[in-house]
Write a structure and sequence with these properties.
It is a single chain. The protein is of the alpha+beta class and about 100 residues long. Helix content is about 30%, strand content about 20%. The chain has four helices and five strands. Strand 4 and strand 5 form a beta hairpin. The radius of gyration is 15 Å and the shape is globular.
Length: about 100
């Protein structure tokens, strides 16, 4: 998709580039986007969070190949399969 992505590992948070969405997100914590020269190495570590600016119409492409994900919303954490998310979304669209 050509969008910059920030990854959070147990030791750090780093990106392969930056755009206005990432800059704005980091600004919430009074931080700046760290564009890492060693991003390829960071991708090999266990990643706890992926940050990327996206619009609703891009979600399907972004999540292609995802088997499960952990959602955090309103202080509630839920482990769910992406397939069940899609099925629920389809059901909601039919209502």
């Amino acid at each position: 998709m050509g969008k910059p992505v920030a990854l959070a590992t147990k030791d750090r948070m780093a990106a392969n580039g930056k755009d206005q969405d990432l800059i704005d997100y980091y600004a919430f914590g009074n931080a700046e986007v760290d564009v890492a020269e060693d991003f390829e190495d960071i991708k090999k570590e266990k990643v706890y969070q992926v940050l990327m600016g996206a619009r609703v119409e891009e979600y399907q492409e972004i999540l292609k190949g995802v088997r499960e994900l952990r959602l955090r919303h309103g202080g509630i954490e839920q482990l769910t399969s992406y397939r069940s998310m899609q099925e629920k979304e389809q059901g909601l669209r039919k209502c």
